[in-house]
Specification:
The chain is 35% helix and 21% strand. With 337 residues, it is an alpha+beta fold. It folds into two domains: 58-174 and 300-336, no CATH class; 213-295, no CATH class.
């Protein structure tokens, strides 16, 4: 009889007690998996996970002033880019949009190399602007660390996010102020048919920024001298109304072709020769001089930074800003590509 009780209790222990012990052990172990851990009091707390790039985690950055190449973490690099490219007092959603755009542009450059020994350089005329933290802080008058922290937060909160078209990173052009309407790449560089996401789009609110309008006055002699640097045979009759005349506009209303005496040049060339902020300009002839009345700042292709800030002020998110300026795109995690 005693053996029967022993067998009975052994049966209960094997069938019920042991499974319960193992289950508790598994639950305790699983509580530490993923983004949770147990604190000193035995309570489970959420902890943030570091984003890990499957690729593109580091880049080769060319410093053009020293010709040295530095290996740097992608998102660390982006903090220096965002702080160089966009005013820190812009809305956070605009800065986050800039971070996503800059990350996308960087990865596009990695996949379409322009430099033999580096992925990208720190020259804004070639790739993207970049500034050291030391130099950036020196240019801010107050709340220096708070401002840098704001930049870091915007980069961190968008980690891994890039803009894609047909499952590939886009060539994410951006500029300062579109003057209310962006431009087609073909009217700036003569190409871009393979970038259907870059279209003419309108944006309200840009006229409230200092980048919106500007004027340049040049004497007739200065006009002639600047043109002679490229066109030695230039001849202009300043008394003839038809000798300085805009001949054609782009689909966005910018100058496509303008005549100066015996030469017809593109609006983009005129912008470079005369140091204009954009190709969206009109000319006013006065006694002995020409006035250029300019709207917008930059080439006008892709995201307008002031346009992004204007949208953010009106409640738009970074994702909504991006989908406004780049047509038919998707924002994806780079690790999903």
């Amino acid at each position: 009889m005693k053996k029967v009780f022993i067998y009975f209790f052994a049966f209960l222990f094997i069938c019920f007690v042991l499974p319960a012990l193992f289950t508790k052990s598994e639950i305790n172990a699983s509580s530490k998996v993923g983004n949770e851990e147990e604190n000193a009091d035995g309570n489970v707390e959420k902890v943030s996970e570091a984003y890990i790039y499957n690729q593109y985690g580091t880049i080769q950055l060319l410093h053009t002033d020293t010709n040295e190449v530095e290996e740097v973490a992608l998102d660390t690099y982006l903090c220096h880019v965002v702080s160089a490219e966009m005013p820190v007092d812009f809305e956070k959603e605009a800065l986050k949009a800039q971070a996503i755009v800059a990350r996308t542009y960087t990865i596009y450059k990695i996949n379409n190399k322009k430099h033999d020994n580096a992925d990208i350089c720190d020259d804004s005329n070639c790739c993207q602007a970049w500034i050291s933290k030391e130099d950036r802080l020196a240019k801010w008058d107050e709340d220096k660390e708070a401002k840098w922290n704001k930049i870091e937060e915007c980069v961190k909160e968008t980690q891994g996010k890039i803009i894609t078209y047909d499952h590939q990173p886009i060539n994410a052009f951006f500029h300062s102020n579109s003057g209310g309407k962006t431009e087609l790449p073909v009217d700036v560089w003569g190409g871009g048919s393979n970038m259907p996401y870059l279209q003419v789009v309108e944006t309200a609110g840009e006229d409230g920024y200092s980048q919106y309008n500007s004027e340049i006055d040049l004497t007739n002699e200065e006009i002639l001298q600047k043109l002679k640097e490229k066109y030695v045979d230039i001849q202009i009759d300043f008394n003839n109304e038809d000798d300085i005349k805009i001949l054609e506009y782009t689909s966005s209303g910018r100058v496509k072709t303008i005549k100066f005496g015996n030469h017809e040049i593109s609006g983009t060339e005129a912008r470079t020769i005369f140091g204009l902020r954009s190709t969206n300009f009109e000319i006013s002839k006065e006694e002995g001089k020409i006035k250029f009345i300019v709207i917008g700042y930059g080439h006008g292709v892709g995201m307008s930074q002031t346009g992004a800030d204007s949208m953010a002020k009106n409640g738009s998110t970074a994702e909504e800003i991006i989908n406004h300026f780049y047509v038919g795109v998707e924002i994806k995690d780079v690790n999903s590509l």
